[in-house]
């Protein structure tokens, strides 16, 4: 009987832990601020229960109906791990935690399909969406927000390289400042929603299809083509290709014998520099820029003939010397094109460019080639020893004739 009780207890604990992990990692936490307590909907803040999309839609519908102005604060990513962070100063969400204690803030531990629901109920436009990347709210954005007749606003926080706790603490302060200022200007109830676009936790551990991180991306400008695969930063590896963070060509700088192509990715700008000769071109180097400041550099130095492309399956890593982060390109294929007259450019603009024959970055020695050479050397060694053994075999100088006298061999003492 005791064994059955223990088994039942373990089963309940494992089930609850599994459900908690599933709810926590698949859903995204949401904070709902209601200073005037005009919302009547009941919210179950149990961390063991995952809110259904229909329930979240009901809550947001009431928010839209009863809120004179709705402020929607969006983090790029947010999880329960972020909410539970603490340092020597305590939680980064000082104002939100104080609102929860006072009953003015409601907490939803895990909401699914929440961002799609928000954009359906509160459509984002150019006029009502603002992006914040610093530690303060600019006056120009304040004037656009405070003196407009719009009923809802999106304030989207950008990725910052500061400590995560300090970043969230600054966001908590900015949200409190905006919320109080808008509340003082508007006579009606002001409601706010704080959440993230997605949960950054890796979902493939929960049998959720894993996002492909090795998908190829082809970039094309008037004088170059790139095929990039596995474009990522090690710190942001789980959020590759999630929020439009796809590399794009931002600038093309031509010189007498040089060509520089700038590709924007996250907060970085990666510049590919080429030297253009008469019979060939050289993939000179890759430079990393952060806010127009050069922070990293990687020498390539590969010479390729015209009408041929450069391909390399080895990771190309450019390190930011300021903070130690890096931008990694797992596989790259690049090819610049010769300058053309204006009339020819117009005709070629309508045609799709194609890569020429590829010149590999390691054409002579690679792992398969070295393995083949080693196997060939071992086989030749065995063959040499076998031939040597055959040549060392001694035959008799005389043989017994059945029609003649038998051989008489003297006994050797």
Structure write-up:
By secondary structure, the chain is an alpha+beta fold. It has two domains: 2-205, no CATH class; 216-360, Beta Barrel (Porin), CATH 2.40.160.110. The protein is 30% helix and 31% strand. It has nine helices and 17 strands. It has helices at residues 2-26, 53-66, 80-83, 94-102, 114-121, 139-146, 164-185, 342-349, 367-391, and strands at 28-34, 69-77, 105-111, 129-132, 152-157, 190-198, 216-220, 224-232, 248-254, 258-265, 268-276, 280-290, 293-305, 309-312, 316-319, 326-336, 358-360. Strands 3-1-6-2-5-4 form a six-stranded mixed β-sheet, sandwiched between helices. Strand 10 (258-265) and strand 11 (268-276) form a beta hairpin. Helix 2 runs parallel beside helix 5 (114-121). The longest helix has 25 residues, at 2-26. The radius of gyration is 34 Å and the shape is elongated.
């Amino acid at each position: 009987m005791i064994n059955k009780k223990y088994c039942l207890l373990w089963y309940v604990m494992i089930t609850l832990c599994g459900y908690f992990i599933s709810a926590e990692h698949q859903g995204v936490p949401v904070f709902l601020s209601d200073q005037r307590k005009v919302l009547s909907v009941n919210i179950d803040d149990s961390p063991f229960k995952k809110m259904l999309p229909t329930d979240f839609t009901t809550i947001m519908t009431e928010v839209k109906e009863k809120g004179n102005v709705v402020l929607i604060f969006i983090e790029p990513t947010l999880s329960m791990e972020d909410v539970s962070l603490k340092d020597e100063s305590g939680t980064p969400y000082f104002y939100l935690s104080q609102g929860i204690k006072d009953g003015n803030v409601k907490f939803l531990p895990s909401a699914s399909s929440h961002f799609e629901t928000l954009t359906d109920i509160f459509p984002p436009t150019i006029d009502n969406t603002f992006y914040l990347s610093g530690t303060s709210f600019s006056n120009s954005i304040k004037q656009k927000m405070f003196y407009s007749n719009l009923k809802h606003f999106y304030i989207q926080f950008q990725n910052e390289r500061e400590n995560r706790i300090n970043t969230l603490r600054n966001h908590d302060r900015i949200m409190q400042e905006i919320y109080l200022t808008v509340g003082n200007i508007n006579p009606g109830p002001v409601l706010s929603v704080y959440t993230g676009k997605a949960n950054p936790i890796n979902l493939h551990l929960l049998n959720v299809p894993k996002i492909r991180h090795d998908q190829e991306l082809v970039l094309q400008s008037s004088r170059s083509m790139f095929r990039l695969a596995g474009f990522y930063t090690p710190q942001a590896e789980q959020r590759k290709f999630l929020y439009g963070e796809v590399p794009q060509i931002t600038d093309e700088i031509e010189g007498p014998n040089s060509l520089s192509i700038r590709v924007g990715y996250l907060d970085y700008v990666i510049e590919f520099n080429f030297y253009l000769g008469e019979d060939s071109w050289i993939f000179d180097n890759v430079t990393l820029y952060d806010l127009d400041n050069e922070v990293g550099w990687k020498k390539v130095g590969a010479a390729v003939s015209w009408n041929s492309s450069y391909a390399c399956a080895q990771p190309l890593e450019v390190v930011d010397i300021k903070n130690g982060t890096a931008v990694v390109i797992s596989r790259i294929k690049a090819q610049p094109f010769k300058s053309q007259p204006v009339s020819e450019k117009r005709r070629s603009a309508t045609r799709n460019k194609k890569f020429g024959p590829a010149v590999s970055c390691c054409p002579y020695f690679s792992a398969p080639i070295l393995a083949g050479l080693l196997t060939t050397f071992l086989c030749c060694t065995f063959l040499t020893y076998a031939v040597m053994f055959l040549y060392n075999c001694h035959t008799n100088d005389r043989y017994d004739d059945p029609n003649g006298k038998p051989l008489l061999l003297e006994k050797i003492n």
